[in-house]
Specification:
single chain, mainly alpha, 2 helices, 3 strands
């Protein structure tokens, strides 16, 4: 069964046959003798429109379903994989950073230990060198002291021997003078022997007092 429409003579718009005024321009359809249009053709058009609308709705649903499928089946898992990969990379970076910090700390401890040992070794070598220097200085001072002692003893011995010879000579000359003889005269044998014995005794005393080989 067809559907009748009233065509407005003023604007040409289609209106339902039950309307009194044009929906578009408001003209009274009854007074303007609006033309009656058979609705059989329009009913077909309405059916086509309903079919198109139905397919549009179906297409919308399908597109929505595809969109949801892509989102939950492809996009979300991909985002999850990206998130997991990012977290894994961050974890690896943290572990690598931690290992680097531990290695740096270990190296710092090793360097500190090596430096401490090196300082101890240098200190020990310095002390040993200083001890050797002190030992050599003491030995040098002892040798110098011994040398000074020996030289003084030799000097004292020389002076003592000279003094003994001088005393012997003075006594000899004085005896010659008492005899009215010149210096260096020959004295009687007993007297000469007595003076020579005194000279040897004085020299022996010098050697006994200032013996450099004691």
């Amino acid at each position: 069964m067809g559907i009748e429409f009233l065509v407005c003579n003023s604007c040409g718009s289609r209106n339902s046959s039950v309307r009194m005024a044009c929906l578009n321009c408001g003209t009274n359809l009854r007074d303007s003798n609006a033309s009656v249009l058979d609705g059989s053709i329009q009913a077909s058009e309405v059916g086509n429109l309903a079919t198109v609308t139905k397919w549009i709705l179906i297409l919308s649903v399908v597109l929505r379903a595809v969109s949801l499928f892509y989102h939950y089946v492809i996009t979300v898992p991909k985002l999850e994989r990206v998130k997991i990969e990012v977290e894994r990379q961050e974890k690896l970076e943290k572990e690598s950073k931690l290992k680097a910090e531990e290695a740096a700390a270990e190296k710092a401890r090793a360097d500190a230990a090596w430096l401490e040992k090196e300082e101890a070794r240098k200190k020990r070598e310095t002390e040993q060198a200083q001890a050797q220097i002190d030992k050599e200085l003491r030995a040098a001072n002892e040798r110098r002291s011994e040398y000074e002692k020996t030289r003084n003893l030799q000097l004292f011995l020389t002076n003592c021997l000279k003094s003994a010879d001088k005393t012997h000579s003075e006594i000899w000359e004085r005896h010659c003078s008492l005899l009215g003889r010149p210096k260096g005269c020959l004295l009687p044998n007993p007297v000469a022997s007595h003076y020579e014995l005194g000279r040897r005794q004085s020299r022996d005393e010098c050697y006994a007092r200032f013996n450099t080989f004691k």
